[in-house]
């Protein structure tokens, strides 16, 4: 089915809604987790999905990145930005995750995992270690930049 038109998308939404309404196995619930810093309203989404008989905890990571130009110390427009990042990493590290996804495919290696899946690998998206590694690396990068900016207040991220 082509999803080129809004009517096709709507037809698919109705079909999935009816299927989920009548068959509980097709239901899932998204949970919004506030993970600010990158933006004030940045959200990470979690849900449980089925893989055969087992339930997997899926995490769709928002952005924990400190982009070029971000000011973490002395930011007049977003004074609590660094504290928000700290809170975000507490949340992200607390989430159980077997199925690692993200706002951008590069976060979780989408292309490589897709290629591995096409080659017959069971499910490369089940990647709890990749999730932990990604979050740890992003937190380390944030903390290094925060420390650099504490020494040079007002100096934007590079």
Radius of gyration: 19 Å
Class from helix and strand fractions: alpha+beta
Most strands sheet: 4 strands, mixed
Q: Distance between termini?
A: 44 Å
CATH class: Alpha Beta
- In helices, the fraction of residues equals 40-55%
Uncertain segments of ≥5 residues (pLDDT<50)?
none
Strand content: 15-25%
CATH superfamily: Ribonuclease Z/Hydroxyacylglutathione hydrolase-like
CATH topology tier name: Metallo-beta-lactamase, Chain A
The neighbouring-strand order within the major sheet is 1-2-3-4
The SSE string, one letter per element, is: HEEEHEHHH
Shape: elongated
CATH A-level architecture: 4-Layer Sandwich
What's the number of helices?
5
Produce the secondary structure layout.
Elements (H helix, E strand, L loop, with lengths): L5 H17 L8 E4 L8 E9 L2 E8 L19 H14 L4 E4 L2 H4 L1 H9 L9 H24 L7
Parallel strand pairs: 3-4
Antiparallel strand pairs: 1-2, 2-3
Helix pairs in contact: 2-5
Describe the protein in words:
By secondary structure, the protein is α+β, with helices and mostly antiparallel strands. The chain has one domain: 4-Layer Sandwich (Metallo-beta-lactamase, Chain A), CATH 3.60.15. The protein contains 5 helices and 4 strands; from the N terminus they run αβββαβααα. The chain has helices at 6-22, 81-94, 105-108, 110-118, 128-151; strands at 31-34, 43-51, 54-61, 99-102. The chain has a 4-stranded mixed sheet. Strand 2 and strand 3 form a beta hairpin. Helix 2 packs antiparallel against helix 5 (128-151). The longest helix is centred in the last third of the chain and has 24 residues, at 128-151. It is elongated and about 55 Å long. The chain starts with 5 loop residues before the first helix and ends in a 7-residue tail after the last helix.
């Amino acid at each position: 089915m082509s999803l080129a038109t809004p009517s096709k998308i709507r037809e698919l939404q109705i079909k999935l809604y009816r299927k989920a309404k009548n068959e509980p196995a097709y239901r899932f619930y998204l949970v919004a987790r506030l993970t600010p810093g990158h933006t004030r309203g940045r959200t990470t989404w979690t849900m449980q999905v089925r893989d055969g008989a087992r339930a997997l905890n899926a995490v769709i990571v928002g952005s924990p990145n400190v982009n070029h130009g971000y000011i973490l110390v002395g930011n007049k427009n977003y004074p609590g930005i660094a504290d928000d990042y700290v809170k975000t990493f507490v949340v992200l590290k607390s989430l159980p995750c077997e199925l690692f996804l993200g706002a951008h495919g590069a976060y979780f290696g989408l292309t490589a995992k897709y290629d591995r899946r096409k080659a017959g690998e069971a499910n490369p998206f089940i990647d709890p270690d990749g999730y932990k590694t990604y979050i740890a690396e992003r937190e380390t990068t944030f903390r290094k930049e925060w420390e650099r900016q504490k020494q040079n207040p007002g100096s934007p991220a590079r």
